[in-house]
Please model this.
Amino acid sequence: MSGPDSAWLRMEQEENQMVITGMLTLKPAPDPEAFRTLLKERLLTRFPRFRQRVINRETIPVWEYAGEPDLNRHVQVKVLEDTSPDALESWISRLMSTPLDFDLPLWEFYLVMQGDTCTLVARLHHCIADGIALVRVLLSLATVSPEGPYFQPHKEYQPAKSSVQTGKRGPAGWVKMVVKALLKFLFMPPDTPSDLKGPLQCEKKAAWSDHLPLEDIKALGRIHHATINDVLLWLTCRAVRSYLIENGENPSAEDNFRVTMPVNLRGNDDTVLAGNRFGLIFLSLPVGNPDPEEQLRWIQQEMKEIKRSGEAVVAFGVLALLGRMPMFVESQIIHFLSSKCSAVVTNVPGPKRPLYISGSKLTDMMFWVPKSGKVGLGISLISYNGKVRIGVVSDKVRMQDPGRLTQLFFEQFKTARAKALNP
Model:
């Protein structure tokens, strides 16, 4: 197993599992046997990781062929009599609180039936792939029309290019960049204390928002001379500030809410749909500043400096080294770094047109990011077919109602749009 994949595998804890969860809404519900046949043809025969399990998990992890996967075990059907979104939310939350079986290949699918709607829930351990790769794997099952041809993610779906700007550096420049990033990781002060940071338990809660029109997000960006990513981070900052205030915490002017963000290091010509190829950056969201415009400018400036620093590339190298160190050493370093932030935030752009799986229309996509170490909050943003959603997963003891944060994100979007249209 590669160093980065090993690092993510060994971050697994009972209270913080390293499992990426994806949700795809399909209408009408596909035939379960037809879907299992699709997986066998499009997944098992093309990607060896889905036929392998992990051995030597706590020392030097190794991939081992586990024989032909039992698709009746890896692909299960669940019928929910309650057809409300709340019932699905509660079921997914319980699923996220359950670890994968390490005696088997580390993936599973559920076809959750609610009336004539099916929600395909996919769980994939982080050691198999990162979020970009997971989305590509799922989209490799899709067709561009009910009868085909198959959608080709590496040709038709191009995730955002890496925003890392390492520039043309000589050996001295690279050494300086690495040293500067390592010093930042080591001497970064602890994050501002809040109720969102603290001891964790095993029970998780998941939620997701209503749709936001992607074109409206782009319009906000044009008005404020900001990127889509800047706008989404700004709205996240505004939502977190509102959430803290609602729950009796009043951030002071100097308070920040530090998050860690994955940065895609894959090239657009990378056709490998497995493994981890991303770095991490630390970004401070100025939740203590009540002025929306100043918040956005702060985030823009922070992102510009981080892109120039090459921090994500250095973090990827650190992860590769951690995956080769004794597990005790890795655990101590991960807990040290996770104490520096309060949440993981990730933004994954999805396909711009509707797709189909087993002849059923893919109407919605959502996913939730895992959290490592002491981090109890994950915030995911994903676009699909001209719409954006935000998903939140939290440790129950840290945030009992993550749905409230998704509502606040939506409210902040409406407020920002109204102000932009009527300055």
Q: What stands out?
A: The chain has two domains: 3-152, 171-348+373-421. The chain has a mean pLDDT of 89. The longest strand covers residues 19-27. Residues 27 and 82 are 17 Å apart (CA to CA).
